[in-house]
Predict the structure.
Amino acid sequence: MSRVLTAADRTQDTVWDCDVCIIGSGAGGAVLAAGLAEQGASVVVLEAGPHRSRADFKMREATAMMDLYQEAGTRSTEDLAITILQGRSVGGGTTVNWTSCFRTPDRILQHWREVHGLSELTPDALRPHFEAVESRLNIREWPKELANANNRVLLDGCAKLGWDSGPMRRNVKGCANSGYCGMGCPVDAKQAMHLTYLQDALAAGARVQAEAAVHQLDVEGDRIVAVRARIQPHGHPVPSGPLLTVRAKVTAVCGGAINSPALLLRSQIAASSPVGKRTFLHPVVAVLGQYEQPIHPWYGAPQSSHSHRFIDRGPHKMGFFLEAAPLHPALAAAALKVGGAEHAGLMAQLHRTSALLALHVDGLLPGDEGGVVTIDDSGRPRVAYPIGPQLLEALPVAHDAMARIHLAAGAQSVLTSHTPVVSLSDEAGLGALKDAEYGALKHGIFTAHQMGGCTMGTDPSTSVVNPKHRVHGLGNLFIVDGSVLPTALGVNPSQTIYGLAHRARRFVAEAI
Amino acid sequence: MAITRRQFIVVGAVGSLVLALGGVGVGLSLAFRPSVHREPNTPLVALSPLGFSILAAVAGALVDVPDQPDADEAGVAEGVDALLARLHPAVTAELEQGLRLLENAAVSAVLEGRFTTFSASDRATQQAVLLAWSESEYSLFRRVFRALHGLCMSVYWSQPERHVACGYAGPPDLSMLMPEAP
C-alpha cells in the first residue's frame, strides 16, 4: 500500500494525470476518495496541510495549534470578532474535532426540501449513507457514566431544571477518555479520516499528497482542465516549492467552507453564482461556571452530552443548542479577554471551571444570510460575518440559559466572556446578563463549524452546486464538503458531511 | 487583523484623527518620550525591532501572574515572533500597524492625554491603556487589543512551565488512564 506523500517527495515540478483530483482530505474528500478508488478510479488527493499521526500528537497546545489548524490557530473573521477554529492537516477537521456525531436532523432536511428545492434529500434517501459511515467510523453513543465533570454539569444542570439533554454519539474505538481530541488523538482511538477512509483510499491505489496548496483551477469552456498546486512545506508562510499540476477527468473541491469558495473565487469560477455567500458558522458563545470541587476541564471526552432544549424558539427567533467544551490553558487564556491580575485570577481557578457553549443555528430564518467569504489581493480568504438582529436577540437568551444550568449544577459563580467580565452568583444576578452589551467585539464568539459558501440548490442564481454536487454550468467540477450546506444544521456537522460525501461518490463516478 | 487606511475611515471622526496623525506619528513621538527599545533574546524572524519592542511592552502589561515569570522571562514576544513567521507576511504587516497605533504618542496625547509612547510608559499606565482599548467604543481599538491579547496570552499559557498556575497537571500518562470504553 502506498503512503501519504509529503513535501520531501516533491523536489521538482510534476504533472500527474488521473481520473479524479480531490482537493482536500477531510470529512468530504476522504470519504469520496475511498469510494472512487475502490471502484477502480485513479484518484489523486491534494492536501494543503501536513501529514501528522499518533506519534506527532503530543497533547501540547502550542504544537497542536501550529501543526493542525488553519493559520496556526489564528484564523478569524476580518473584524476579529469571531475566532475560527478549523483544521488543516491530512484528515482535515476530523483530525482535531471533538468526535461529536449526529445525523442531519429531519427538520433541517425538511427545510432544505421546502426552501432550497433539495427534494432528493430525505431521511430515507440518506439513511444508507449514514449507516455506512456509522459502521466504518464506529459511531456509537458514549455512555453517560463516562461523562467528564464538565459534561456532567450540562447533564445535571439540565436535569435539575427539567430541560432535555442527552448523551452524544462519538466516532471512537478504544477511547482512553483522555480529553485531547482537539490536539490529535494520541491513541488512534478517534476514527479520523487519516486512519479510516484515507487508508481505504491508499489501499485502493489513490495518491495522497500533503503540503500541496492548490491555488488555481484552469478552465476551458465548461471543463476544468488542470488543478495547479504549489508545494508548501509545513511551517513555510507561503507556498514556494515546486509546482504540482494535476490533469484530471473530474475535479472535486473538498477544502471545506471558507477555503473552497476562496479557491473558486481565485479561479474566477461560477462568477454568476453566489460563491462565498451564505457562509454559516454556528456562532458560539461560552459561559463559565466556577465550582467548589475540581472540574479539570481538560480531561475526559471533550463533548459527550448536549441539550437541544432551545433549538426551536418559535417563529422568527434563532435557535441554539448547548454543549460542553474543554478548557485547556492556552485556549482559555486567549478566550478570557481581560489582562493583568484579573486574568491571572481567573486562570488560577481554571481547574475548577466548567465551560458551556451555545451554538446558534444560522441560515434558517428569512433575512439571515450569514457571512461572506471573499479573497484579498494575495488570494487569501477573508470572512465577514455581521452579527444580525436574529443572532443579537438570541445571544442574551443563550447566556441566561447557560448561567441557569451552571447555577442549577451548583456553581459558586458564573462568568461571561464579556470585556469586562460579567459575573453573578445566584439567580438574582441574572439581570446583569440582560443589561450586558452583546455583539461583535463585546464578548467572545468563536466557531468550530464552518458551513456554506458554495451552497447546494436548484437555482444557479441562488446556489453554486446542484443537488448532485456539480457546480452549475461546469461539466466536471464537483464540491463535496461542508461548503455545500444551504444552512447551518443545529448539530455538529461532521456526520452530515460524511453522509453527503458517501452519497456523492456515485455522482462523481458517473462523470469520469 | 486588518487595519487598513480604509478601515480607519470607517471608524469615523477618531479614524480621521488617527489618519491625520498616523503619517507623522512616529516623528511626533520623538518630540515626546520616545520608544523604549527591547533587545530580543533570539534573532527576530518576523517582526521589526520597533514592533518587537512594543509587543514586549504589551506582553509585560498583560501578563501578571503571581509567583510566575513575567512575559520577558517567559519569552512571550519572542514566541509571538516565531508564530508570526509561520503566517502569511501580510499578517505581520497588519499587526505592526496595530502596534504602531498603540505606540503613537501623538495619538495618545490627543485621545488619552498621554504624552509618552506606550513602550515608554510605566506599567500601570500601560495596563490602563490596554484596559481602555479593550473596552473602547471604537471597534478599531478593540480589534488591536484582541489581536495582541490573544497572541500574548496563548503563547504564555501554552508553556508547560506555566500550567501549575492554573492547576493543570499536564497531559496524562496514558498507561494510567481510565479503562477502555467503547
